[in-house]
Amino acid sequence: VGANASLDVIAPLMAAAHGQGAAFVNWLQDVHSVGTRAVLARKFGRLGDLLGRGFEAREGRLLRGAEAVLAITDAFRPLLDRWRVRPERVSVIENWAPLAELPQRPRDTAWAQAHGLAGHPVVLYSGTLGMKHDPAGLAHLAERLARAAPDARLVVVSSGEGADWLAAAQCERGLANVVLLPFQPFEVFPDVLGSADVFVAVLEPEASAVSVPSKVLAYLCAGRPAVLSVPPDNLAARIVTRERAGTVVPPGDADALAEAVLALLADDAERQRAGAAGRAYAERAFDLGAIADRFEAVLTDALARRA
Fold first, then answer.
1. What angle do the packed helices 135-148 and 254-265 form, to 10 degrees?
2. At what angle do helices 268-285 and 215-222 cross, to 10 degrees?
């Protein structure tokens, strides 16, 4: 089983598996080549787009060569059809969060106190922060919070290119209300989530069909509302909207993101209602026994095809 790896990793893994007579399952968390093509086209124009097409062709070949493709959202199906991946080899199992390991925690924990968050409304972003997650929108949110809710803190727990960009923006713009932290040990992660009043997740429009921000699943476990700046057809947006576990705003609209966050910070009752709705969904949907049964069926089918 290969997941969350670049094409340069998936290709030799699948070749090695097939060389040993083993079946290979491509657990499709993100479609890497589509994002790569978009970035190359922006940077290098037609030449970049041509190079990106090569990456897409390679990823299509790797997906067609797997005995099973395990997608995390139905939104991947049109692309898999276009790449001529056999429909009978494609299964969809949505991602989940480890509910038992993410208990609801009170706001004022030792972790919150250690980072100067006690007594401050906290807006939290936790997880991968690449450029596709629009860190500029978070910087704008911090500016709006500084004016409208000066006691609030925007806490960003992340590492990588987007986090580096946000750190530079923090210095350039004097964003004193931003608390930037690296990824935290998992044993304190429930306390990290518990420190929040409102969660935030951001995704650029072109990434919607090839990415699902799984950080939202952990947010749901914490029993706090989320504001998502993602396309409405994204799986995370559909869940939050359907379960009334927060607010979804159009991607790229930094003012709409800020307005939604400020509205929730000002409405204690709505925060409690939306947070409880998210937790209730997590308790229904993140049943590891049922998920394991579905995985076992996918693996069994893959073995049968290889045989």
1. 50
2. 110
* Cα–Cα nearest to 260, from 280, 220, 230, 216: 230
DSSP conformational letter for 155? E
What are 171's two structure tokens? 């210095």
Question: Is residue 95 a contact partner of residue 212, using CB atoms and an 8 Å limit?
Answer: yes
What distance in Å separates the CA atoms of residue 43 and residue 196, rounded to the nearest whole number?
A: 37
212, pLDDT greater than 80:
no
Q: In this predicted model, what pLDDT tens digit does every residue of 245-295 receive, in sequence order? A: 999 999 889 999 999 999 999 999 999 999 999 999 999 999 999 999 999
Residue 33 near residue 55 (C-beta atoms within 8 A): yes
Integer Cα distance of 210 and 90 in angstroms: 15
Written as six digits, the tokens of 3 are 């997941």
User: What is the tens place of the pLDDT at every residue in 31-66?
Assistant: 889 888 988 998 999 999 999 999 999 999 999 999
In the chain, the amino acid numbered 282 is A
Alpha helices in 125-253, H assignment, sequence order:
135-148, 161-173, 189-194, 215-222, 235-243
- The distance of Cα 124 from the centroid of its chain, to the nearest Å, equals 14
Q: Alpha carbon 110 to chain centroid distance?
A: 27
Determine which helix (DSSP H) or strand (DSSP E) holds 104, and give its type and residue range. none
Question: What predicted TM-score, i.e. pTM, was given to this entire model?
Answer: 0.82
Please check the confidence at residue 208 and state whether its pLDDT lies above 60: no
How far is it, in rounded angstroms, from Cα 262 to Cα 147? 11
Q: Rounded to 5 degrees, what are φ and ψ at 164? A: -65, -40
